Amino acid sequence: MHPVAWWGWAIGLAIAASLTTNPFLLALLTGVIVLVVLARRGSSPWARAFRIYAWLGAAVIGFRVIFHVLVGLKYGEIRLFWLPTIGLPKWAAGIELGGPVYLEGLLGAVLLGARLAVLILAIGAANALANPKRLLRAFPRALTEIGTAVVVAVSVAPQLAESVQRVSRARALRGEPMVGLRALPRVAIPVLQDTLDRSLALASAMESRGYGGRQPQRSAWVATLTLGGLVLTAWGLYGLLAADSIAWWTGPWVLVLGAGACASGLWAAGRSVAVTTYRPDTWGWPETFTVACGCATAVALLWTRAVAPGSLDLPLQPLGPPPLPWLALIGILIGVIPALTQPEESR
């Protein structure tokens, strides 16, 4: 599988998660992401790092609830408990430390944290299913330096996970305890040393293949074309999002013109960059089908948001049961199809 295909699928599910606070839909999205990862990931280090993103999502929910209880906006009718109120200076007006905690506000904090946790899971799924180093082949030639930095940044978590597992296995073979605060420095120092050695080896390998070398000077008109395309793209996006009727007419045309100018500038800049790719990844129907499943999930929730916006959120004032929009449910279930049709990642 082309690595960009899994990232396209994951971005579609992340867009869908950002549109809802319905607990049923968020739980279904979580199940779809976990099922696809468990069914199609390999045994690579980045595949085993998915649990780190799961723990990070759980921590986000916990911190969101703690901040709501301590300094969040208290609202609702069903009071759960009362905390002592701490007075703040006048410049912090509107912020209250402690006070009553209501069920409606607490549920809202949990759902907002769960929405962010599903976004983190989607990014973790893309990192677990796609080889982050292979993404460098898919970057345009003009963005070689940025692509190198992104690949190194994305591969940090998998390298740390693999280092922790290697050190843990070595300590277990020696019969050393793995729990307690005393074991933390004995584990942290070898992990940091192993990660540093692997990073230096990666840097040496990339330098030997020409990454990080001196890039040729690009002409001024290429930079002007790219910068002008970015400005037109921002103008077009503003026109699409603005409420003015004139902006709605001019926004799409300016957006298309700006995107075309950016693409032309990147293509012209990439012509002067010589990058050799060994066995480039091919894009076929499986990749297109995977991205289409993620896009179908996002489109289904976008359409539901436009037709029935209240069905994607849990009613809190007054508190009521969450609705079950059939279109959103079908769209989320489409996202699980790659778990049944696409090949497993190589081990």
Question: Please, could you describe this protein's structure?
Answer:
The protein has 347 residues and is mostly helical. Helix content is 66%, strand content 4%. It has helices at 3-17, 23-40, 45-48, 50-71, 103-129, 135-138, 144-154, 156-173, 183-208, 220-241, 245-270, 285-307, 326-334, 338-341; strands spanning 79-86, 97-102. A two-stranded antiparallel sheet has the order 1-2. The radius of gyration is 24 Å and the shape is globular.
Set out the fold topology.
Blueprint: H1 3-17, H2 23-40, H3 45-48, H4 50-71, E1 79-86, E2 97-102, H5 103-129, H6 135-138, H7 144-154, H8 156-173, H9 183-208, H10 220-241, H11 245-270, H12 285-307, H13 326-334, H14 338-341
Antiparallel strand pairs: 1-2
Helix pairs in contact: 1-5, 1-12, 2-5, 2-13, 4-5, 8-9, 10-11, 12-13
Kindly summarize this structure in a few lines.
66% of the residues lie in helices and 4% in strands.
Helix-residue proportion: 55-70%
Mean pLDDT: 77
What would you call the structural class?
A: mainly alpha
Tell me the β content.
Answer: under 5%
Rg over CA atoms, rounded to whole Å, is 24 Å
Tell me how many strands there are: 2
The separation of the N and C termini measures: 13 Å
Order of helices and strands: HHHHEEHHHHHHHHHH
Uncertain segments of ≥5 residues (pLDDT<50)? Answer: none
Query: Strands of the biggest beta sheet: in what spatial order?
Result: 1-2
Protein traits:
66% helix; mainly alpha; two-stranded antiparallel ribbon; single chain; 14 helices; 347 residues; 4% strand
